[in-house]
Amino acid sequence: MIRSIAILALTLLAPGLITALPPQPAWQWPVDTPRVVVRPFIAPAGPYASGHRGIDVVAEGGRVFAPAEGTVHFAGTVVDRPVLSIRHAGGLISSFEPVETTLRQGDAVARGDPIGTALPGHCSGTCLHFGVRLDGEYVSPLLYLGGVSPSVLLPTRR
Question: 10 Å Cβ neighbour count for 1?
Fold first, then answer.
């Protein structure tokens, strides 16, 4: 009860201190329509646990686009698969595989720029694995594509 009164007092006395988070602008999907997610993001229980650290999206036509403005962080092969990663503002890195690209580390990209071609081999058809890291932690790309609403904590006590 005292805590509720304190929050109410702060809200009334200093309304500028308690504000809602500004909405994040939605990123562009990295593939053309139709946008079909064939495998969802599955958060791992820990840093080395199993999971699916991205989404697999049908890539009809194979064209891949930058979801947001950024700089190429990595373009090369990881194990046996060509990978492209883009560093964005706010501690975000997007990654795409398997994707063939002519881009190099340090190249600037704008939202919607063509960044490569999805190659077959990841799914039964041509699809793109699209991952996002926030400050090094994998998060669902749908958070940035407008597919998942932010979590809201509700009170558990009355």
Answer: 6
Question: Which two three-digit tokens encode residue 78?
Answer: 């990881």
pLDDT tens column, 89-133: 999 999 999 999 999 999 999 999 999 999 998 888 899 999 999
> Two tokens at 55?
């989404």
SS3 109: strand
Q: What are the Cα distances from residue 145, in Å, to 17, 29, 62, 86, 119?
A: 29, 7, 19, 16, 22
Domains (ranges, CATH) in the chain? 37-145 (2.70.70.10)
Of 81, 68, 74, the C-alpha closest to 107 is: 74
What predicted TM-score, i.e. pTM, was given to this entire model? 0.77
